[in-house]
Amino acid sequence: MKIFLAVIIVLIVLLQCRLWFVNGGIEQIQQDQLRLVELKKQVEEKRERNAALYAEVEDLRKGQESLEERARKELGMIRDGETFFQVLE
Q1: Is residue 83 part of a domain?
Q2: pTM for this model (two decimals)
């Protein structure tokens, strides 16, 4: 009986050592959980960015006004019959 008890204790100690100290143990699990939280945050940020870009694309597809606004702002374009004034400060 003493030998059986000793074997059980040795097995428990070996399993505990493996759980705490070997690669893939508790420490690795905690690091993986932190990395998972970080990745989820990055995914959420990218989803929000994608939604904003998708809304902008839809706005450009549907509306002439937003297309004109972008052409005026980024390219400096004007309509026929309009006069361009440049204010220098």
Answers
A1: no
A2: 0.50
Instruction: Provide the domain limits for residue 7.
Output: 2-75
Write down the pLDDT at residue 4. Answer: 86
pLDDT given at position 43? 98
Q: Tell me the mean pLDDT in the region 30-38.
A: 94
Q: What is the DSSP string of the chain?
A: -HHHHHHHHHHHHHHHHHHHHSTTSHHHHHHHHHHHHHHHHHHHHHHHHHHHHHHHHHHHHH-HHHHHHHHHHHH----TT--------
Whether pLDDT at 40 is above 90: yes
61, part of any domain: yes
The CA-based angle 21-26-32, given to 5 degrees, is 125
